[in-house]
Amino acid sequence: MSTRRFTDDLSDSDNSGQPEEKPVAAPSAAAPSAPAAPIAPRAPSAPVTPRQAGNPSAASNRGGAHLPRTLTQVLAEANDRVVRGDLIDYVPLPTGFDPLDGFIGGGLRKTELVLLGGPQGIGKTIATLQVARNIAMRPDQYVFYLSYEHPETHLLHRLMCMESVNPPEIDLSRGIKLRDLYQIIVANRAKDFMREGGGTSLNSILRDNPKTAPGLARLARYSDRMILVKASPAVTTLRAIKEMTARLCDATGGNVTVFIDYLQKIAVYPERPRDENDKVTIIVEGLKDIAMSLDVPVWSIVAADREGLKSKRIHLFHLRGSSALDYESDIAIIMNNKYQIMSKDHVSFNPYTAKQFRDWVVWTIEKNRAGRAMQDMEFQLHGQHFTFDPRGQKVQQQLIDDKVLES
Fold first, then answer.
1. E strand spans, 81-225
2. From 21, 319, 376, 381, which residue has the greatest number of CB atoms within 10 Å?
3. Are residues 54 and 30 in contact, defined by beta-carbon separation less than 8 angstroms?
4. What is the SS3 assignment for 29?
5. Phi, then psi, of 57 in degrees rounded to 5
């Protein structure tokens, strides 16, 4: 079986002299589990704004986005998708975090833009990678994860630590930390040098060690369906993200969920934003356009501004950028440390028992276009294993802002 390269249909005229993006493995349309072909997006040769139409061929493959259609045509297309068994418009993709899925109607849906914000070190990347992992676990779904913060190998190491505790089982007795993983790898390579034998592969080290073997086996269940990119804040533009996503949609029948870590680092080219607000407006409109025109869910991390980092509790309006974040997003989730935002004035507050909540993170749905907003839920963070316990619950204690949730 021949393997198609996604760069074959990119003309040489697309190259405007900008640095090329690092190739990334993509699944084959004919054989999803087969070795992937590289994607090599190029910088745009002509100005394209987020408001402009997307790739014509990609748009025609996904319902003729940006093209006028009669209601009869829309109904016919919806009918064809149901006949084919494509029910994603009616059956959302669960994130694996039960309370969250309950509040947002069962999970992520195509065309939706989900934003996740919070202070530094609260666990935004951990939560995002865990949601991506949960979706990639489904045999019919693919994940496209772009990280402006970490290289692909570091994400692999995080996933190995996460899989060692096997969420939602969360067996901490079998969990490994990043330091443990590095020591296992280095120790085995050192033994090889002492024996003057052949080089031992990373796969064999992880497979033969009883602490890492179970996690590696779990990771292998979805490794062919998780596509990683070390994105560059200099060259990974909205156009590049859209091109790569369109090719993945063509290869997977549109069963792709896009994750971005994080929004403010996306390169803006050739636009020249006036300030930070203008830049964020361009980016968030572009991400919403990708979600709608390519018919995929998009989940993006958003950084908080300086004022938000100084506040006791971060809200949606504290996210760095502009009001466009509120306007364009379908779902906005804000994370805060539970201990920091518990109301100290409440009669039931006990400073000794409250310390147990330092490892708990409150997720607040501050915007929910299709359901109730301002819903608080809490999840326990196991930071050393890069995982949340997804079996969370509604917050029962009083939080600051004088907001109490009913039990």
1. 113-118, 142-147
2. 319
3. no
4. coil
5. -70, -40
Give CA torsion, residues 298, 280, 230, 128, to 10 deg. Answer: -40
Helix, strand or coil for residue 360? strand
**DSSP codes, 318-344:** GBSS-THHHHH-SEEEEEEEHHHHB-T
CA dist 68 and 4 (Å) reads 32
Taking the C-alpha atoms of residue 155 and residue 28, their distance in angstroms, rounded to an integer, is: 23
The CATH number of 87-157+226-394, from 3.90.1150.10, 3.40.640.10, 3.40.50.300, 1.10.287.990, is 3.40.50.300
What is the spatial distance between Cα 163 and Cα 212, in angstroms, rounded to a whole number?
9
Q: How far is CA 386 from the centre of its chain?
A: 15
What is the distance between the alpha carbons of residues 133 and 218, in angstroms, rounded to a whole number? 11
64 φψ region: left (φ > 0), alpha (ψ -120 to 50), beta (else): left
Residues 304 and 316: their CA atoms lie apart, in Å, by: 9
- pLDDT tens-digit profile of 258-290? 999 999 999 998 888 888 889 999 999 999 999
In three-state form (DSSP H/G/I as H, E/B as E, the rest C), the secondary structure along 217-275 is: HHHHCCHHHEEEEECCCCCCEHHHHHHHHHHHHHHHCCCEEEEEECHHHCECCCCCCCC
Report the C-alpha gap between 116 and 334 in whole angstroms: 6
Q: What is the DSSP letter of 48?
A: -
Tell me the pairing of strands 298-303 and 331-337.
unpaired
**Closest to 58 measured CA to CA, from 254, 193, 230:** 254
Gap between the Cα atoms of 12 and 137, Å rounded: 37
278 Cβ contact list (under 8 Å, min separation 6): 322
For the stretch 187-219, pLDDT in tens is 887 776 656 555 678 899 999 999 999 999 999
